[in-house]
Amino acid sequence: MSFWSDRRVFVTGATGLLGSWLVEELLQRGASVTCLVRDWVPASRLVATERLARTNVVRGDLEDYELVLRAINEYEIETVFHLGAQAIVETGLRSTLGTFESNIKGTWTVLEACKSLPGLVRRVIVASSDKAYGPHERLPYTEDAALQGRFPYDVSKSCADLIAFCYYHTYGTPVAVTRCGNLYGGGDLNFNRLIPGTIRSALRNESPVIRSDGTYVREYFYVADAVDAYLQLAEHLPDERFVGQAFNFGTERPMAVNEVVHLILSLMGKTHLVPTVLGHASREIRRQYLDCSKARRLMNWMPKWSVEAGFRETVAWYASHLGAEELQRR
Asked: Which residues are annotated as catalytic?
């Protein structure tokens, strides 16, 4: 039997990219899943595949303490995956307060509810980001690097991490934090992000748009590997080697934005398209990538997907799901 068979799991941010894939895998493994859903997004992978109908759905805001407490208590949740967040950097720049409310207050709301139900909740995974580290001269980031976000989204993640550790050290809440590179995969509907935006432009035979100058360096992490990392880490809780700890997960292959765009165009046979470089992005970290040796050492974890293989799968998903729409545009 799967570790997850009949386990009662609560997922915030369930209709997002990672949430949709995670819920799908939890259902496949036999878990009883309860999802917190704020907005109804018909095109979400979880909604469109009708898998959301196989879960308990709680409608409301992440920051609503009484709602979150009720959901965890009434559905007798033992495992919490806190993925809910405002995750778009540009949106954070436009709406700082909303980003702080969702990412910071939302995190303490979930953790306070978990703390209030210690007899139920046995493991909590808080989804952070490599952005929580902020800019550092020494790379790659290791988990002991200072949390020094400067821009709204980055600061919100630095704060959320510190709050998670506060609940562990003060109240013994069995929480661990994940810090991943930039996630991508089929079902990401935020086309202002580099990978889905580039793929959609290529399907339309249009020049892809690069917001930055193209030299910014990131890790690009396939969502199927992220799901595997989250589940493996949760399965180790509440082991004392894992609670109150952060873990980096990624490919350990830093790539410049230009490199990503040209690789996607090559895989799609669209090398004749010339990217439009705007050079607008400035309030973002210029270079960031992760050291994942802690996860290898303690969990024997390694990504299964190469960047090229992950890109091919992602291109295939968008070609299938957007193909008819894009053909109609021509």
From this structure: 153
